[in-house]
Amino acid sequence: EDHFALRAEESGALLRAASEKVEQSVEMFGFTREIKNAFSPEERIEVMEMLWEVAYADGVLHDLEANLMRRLAGLLHVSDHDSGLARKRVLARLGQES
Questions:
Q1: Per residue in 5-39, is it b (16+ CB within 10 Å) or e — as a string?
Q2: Distance CA 39, CA 16 (A)
Q3: What is the pTM of this model?
């Protein structure tokens, strides 16, 4: 809501629509393709940064989360370098070491 300046009703509607789409899909390529095609390279890096925030929400990066982040970066055409920098920015905001 804060990042995209959405009202609670708008974010709730988006979450409901996303949940319905996810239940109808067994793969993430279609979702990442939409982001890749609609967002600039800089915006895709911002998406990766938001995803890193989710991955670190519990304060721990699990192996499966790290693997998923690598896969998402590849599907979004975000380099390992840029994804790593996004991760470091998140860790810095959280006060954690990289």
A1: eeeeeeeeeeeeeeeeeeeeeeeeeebbeeebeee
A2: 22
A3: 0.78
